[in-house]
Amino acid sequence: MAFIDIVQYFDETGKTMVHREPQDGSSAFRLGTQLIVQDSQSAVFYRDGKALDVFNAGRHTLTTENIPLLTKLISIPFGGKSPFQAQIYFISMKKFIDLKWGTKSPVNFKDSELTYVQLRASGKFSIRITDPRLFMMEIVSTQGLYTTNDIEDYLRDAIVSRLNSVLGKNLKTVFELGQSYQQIESAVKAEVSDFFNSMGIELSDLILIGIVPPEDVQEKINERSSMGAVGNLDNYMKFKTAGAIEKSAENEAGGGLAGAGVGLGAGMTMANMMAQQMQNTNQQSGQQQKMSSGEIMSTIEKLGKMKENGLITQEEFDAKKKDLLSKL
Predict the structure, then answer these.
(1) Distance from C-alpha of 295 to C-alpha of 95, rounded to nearest angstrom
(2) DSSP code per residue over 221-287
(3) Residue of 42, 79, 279, 300 with fewest CB within 10 Å of its CB?
(4) What is the pLDDT of residues 4-41, one digit of tens each?
């Protein structure tokens, strides 16, 4: 059996969190063996299944003075040079960056405007071991080699499991996603920090790369953006109706006489529905709604398109235009 006089470890991969010497289990260490720990490492000394001491960066001599518990665990014949079976675990204390997290399947989110929406999220995070002895006891146990690949999935699932709760507390509707990323990032990190700490790990950074709704919901978000800021879903539905009228007008322009008749009829029906809805709203409120100059000009432009496509007459256009301009 070979005796080990110098023990040290260099990680060439950058992903090793824990490395055991010797890798095949225990070995005979002489009293007086030199243990060299690098700046970015700690070393935990084990004998008989017990962690006897934790060594920080520097050169250490394994003697009964440096490891007092050895005095009780071994006899020291032969002038204190007797070998003893033990293991040394090198723990990397550096920050492990560029770890990835993301949802394996969509997360159900209760949206205030769209009921339930399935969202996918992804991002990155970085960790650092802060308590080597606790990390060994809770996670590594007797493994001879432990890398970020071994723990990344476990930590990712912990982040995702808390994501739904965070979304419910910090987001009302997916239409607000763009302005809520930083708030969601901070909230998720706060939710999982205690879980990481319980294993001797610090969650150094958590980055939210994106939250992706289904394609049909993304289209609604894009439409909402194109009409500018709106106050409620009623305004959004009016915008959708106006868009449908314009689409019908475009269809009739290229669909021949038969297509024009269908498109014109559908367009007129929707135009009447929108006009009736606006009239009912005014009657219920008992007073004219104030509109901004931008809203008035946008509405006049849409009425102009309706007139050009034959959806309303010149007289109807002039009357509505005059009514809108009176609100300036």
Answers:
(1) 53
(2) HHHHHHT---SSHHHHHHHHHHHHHHHHHHHHHHSHHHHHHHHHHHHHHHHHHHHHHHHHHHHHHTS
(3) 79
(4) 688 999 999 999 999 999 888 887 777 788 999 999 99
pLDDT at 286 exceeding the cut of 50:
no
**Secondary structure class of 162 (helix, strand, coil):** helix
Give the pTM: 0.61
163 in Cβ contact with 104 (< 8 Å)? no
Measured CA to CA, the distance from residue 47 to residue 26 in angstroms comes to 9
How many CA atoms within 13 Å lie on the side-chain side of 224?
22
Tokens, residue 216 = 């049909």
Name the amino acid, one letter, at 306: M
Residue 259 confidence (pLDDT): 45
Q: And the tokens for 150?
A: 């071994």
User: How far, in Å, CA of 208 to CA of 185, rounded?
Assistant: 6
- 110-160 pLDDT, tens per residue? 888 888 888 999 999 999 999 999 999 999 988 888 999 999 999 999 999
